[in-house]
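hi! just following up on the protien thing from before. the input was this:
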Amino acid sequence: MQIVPSIRLLCLSDMRTLFPDAVILQERFLGLTKSYTAIRFSAGQDQKSAELGRPSGN
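and the predicted 3d structure came back as:
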């Protein structure tokens, strides 16, 4: 097992820069953002379904 000497946490603008064509979801707890998730959706899937994490047509 190796230990990582350092880490860098990404902010929302970093995520948008790294994933410009993705929907960025923010997981929140008590009003504070816990994490970000970038989701790219295909041409056959609408953005609303991607934001909800479901395949289109449901």
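The chain has one domain: 12-52.
The two ends are 43 Å apart (CA to CA).
cheers
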